[in-house]
Amino acid sequence: MQSDQITTEAIHITDGAGFAAISDSPSAGTGNFYSLIIDPTPDFNQYMFSIALADDGIVSVYYMLSGGSGWTLATPTGGIAQNANANKTYLVQGDVMTAIMVSVSCQQGVTSCPITLFKQNSITLGSVPAPLPEPATWAMMLLGFGGMGMALRRSRRRGKQALMQIA
Questions:
Q1: H-assigned helices in the chain
Q2: How far is 58 from 165, CA to CA, in rounded Å?
Q3: 21-125 CATH, one of 3.30.530.20, 2.60.120.260, 3.40.50.10770, 3.30.300.20
Q4: Are the C-beta atoms of residues 36 and 10 closer than 8 Å to each other?
Q5: Under 8 Å CB-to-CB from 125, ≥6 apart: which residues?
Q6: Are 93 and 45 in contact (CB under 8 A)?
Q7: Which of 9, 36, 64, 165 sits between 20 and 30 A of 90, alpha carbons compared?
């Protein structure tokens, strides 16, 4: 049986191998950790984590792209089956993302399969790549180089110093 309670925890994670871990022990009477949203600041382009479940479950991973407005499923439709107490590692990488959501549901016949351990293995912070110059910008740059070349050539023919004419 899954809990409908929502708990919000903010954990500061930096670039590299932060090794942040969250654990929840069903034996301690809690066992209601079924989903997690990872929302680091700034954006990132790779996130590796491992997860362990109390019983057999289905893990679904979603991501949100920078500038996007909704969640996109990263795992196959229906999620990935994971056995109890297995420490399985997941890697989400690609375009610049703003958040990842991990959600667990129980396999058929299992009544409780909470996350017992969630561990961040690494995160690679990313940003939107610098835009490429437009063709008109390239044309102006080439025209400028051509103009400088012509000025140098012209000054050599006249016997004057090139730097004085360019300046």
A1: 135-158, 162-166
A2: 74
A3: 2.60.120.260
A4: no
A5: 15, 40, 42, 43, 44, 45
A6: yes
A7: 9
Q: What is the pLDDT of residues 92-109, one digit of tens each?
A: 988 888 899 999 998 888
Q: Does residue 65 sit in helix, strand or coil? A: strand
- Tally Cβ neighbours within 10 Å of residue 18: 16
The structural domains of the chain, with segments of one domain joined by +, span 21-125, 135-166
Q: pTM for the full model?
A: 0.64
Phi-psi region at 16: left, alpha or beta (left = phi > 0; alpha = psi -120 to 50): left
Helices (H) and strands (E) in the chain, counts: 2, 8
Strand partners, 60: 103
Mean pLDDT over the full length of the chain = 79
The more confident residue out of 155 and 142 is: 142
